[in-house]
Design a protein that fits this description.
By secondary structure, the protein is of the alpha/beta class. About 40% of the residues lie in helices and about 15% in strands. Strands 1-2-3-4-5-6-7-8 form an 8-stranded parallel beta sheet. Keywords: Hydrolase, Metal-binding.
Length: about 280
């Protein structure tokens, strides 16, 4: 993301929409007022509810606080796979406590990331990621909340671990970025696929094909803000208010009316997250 590009203009409203995965803290929210300002902007274009997601313990604590500040905000908590080396007994105990909070609607984001090991200082190695992923799967099953997956270049191993452990009732692949074969494999298992602004990128050919094979009852939309701003604003700061751009791009790919797709994905999000 380049801070040099101005923030996108407000899109034409499209309601209702739920942002199934965002990071309000990384968008610049620090307290109740600044979080409310971001959510107010989103609500002005129809994005009435958001799930703010943690990737470390500090972010997990913040996400739960934010969900209590504003009834339009819900939280998901976990350690990102690249940070799985911080999942000691103390971290596990705190995550269990936070995940049990009624404003927490998912365990995530967790999973496997095979891109960063060897490139990022302090990144958890693959073996440690797998161990951490298994622990989060177990947590989601014990507290009966959805499991929110981060998957980067790890399709086969990720599906294998899920099969080996036995998945919880609801599994969400956040920011789905794989090909149609992976999409069909996930669909066959009953998993939910969430699409971000990357689906609007013209060079994301396999992802755009994958978006067309997902049934209506297994699809969500998200921003992953402040990252992955949709076309034509790629490289600009992203926020939940940008989600209508992604919904319209996804609807065009799937041959659906944007307003109808907004209703479909909202119904799915409310069902999956029980909000």
């Amino acid at each position: 993301m380049s801070a040099a590009r101005p923030a996108p203009e407000l899109p034409e409203p499209l309601a209702p929409i739920v942002d199934a995965h965002t990071h309000l803290d990384a968008c610049g929210a620090t307290d109740a007022a600044s979080a409310a300002a971001i959510v107010d902007r989103a609500a002005s274009v129809g994005v009435g509810q958001v799930v703010t997601v943690a990737d470390d313990l500090s972010a997990a604590r913040w996400a739960v606080r934010a969900a209590h500040w504003d009834d339009r905000v819900f939280a998901a908590v976990a350690l990102h796979p690249t940070r799985a080396n911080a999942l000691d007994d103390e971290a596990k105990a705190e995550l269990e406590r936070l995940a049990a909070d009624p404003r927490v609607v998912a365990v995530g984001e967790t999973g496997l990331d095979y891109y960063w090991p060897g490139k990022l200082d302090g990144c958890a190695d693959i073996e440690t990621q797998v161990e951490g992923f298994r622990w989060h799967i177990d947590l989601a099953k014990r507290i009966r909340k959805p499991l929110m997956i981060h998957n980067r270049e790890a399709d086969h191993d990720l599906l294998t671990v899920l099969l080996d452990e036995g998945p919880p009732d609801t599994v969400i692949f956040h920011c789905f970025s794989s090909d149609p074969n992976m999409a069909l494999s996930c669909v066959a298992e009953g998993y939910i696929l969430s699409f971000s602004g990357t689906v609007s990128f013209k060079n994301a050919h396999e992802l755009r094909e994958a978006a067309q094979v997902v049934p209506d009852d297994q699809i969500l939309v998200e921003t992953d803000a402040p990252y992955l701003t949709p076309h034509p604003f790629r490289g600009a700061p992203n926020e939940p208010y940008c989600l209508p751009y992604t919904v319209r791009a996804l609807a065009a790919l799937r041959g659906q009316d944007p307003a109808e797709l907004a209703k479909i994905t909202t119904a799915n999000a409310r069902r999956v997250y029980r909000i």
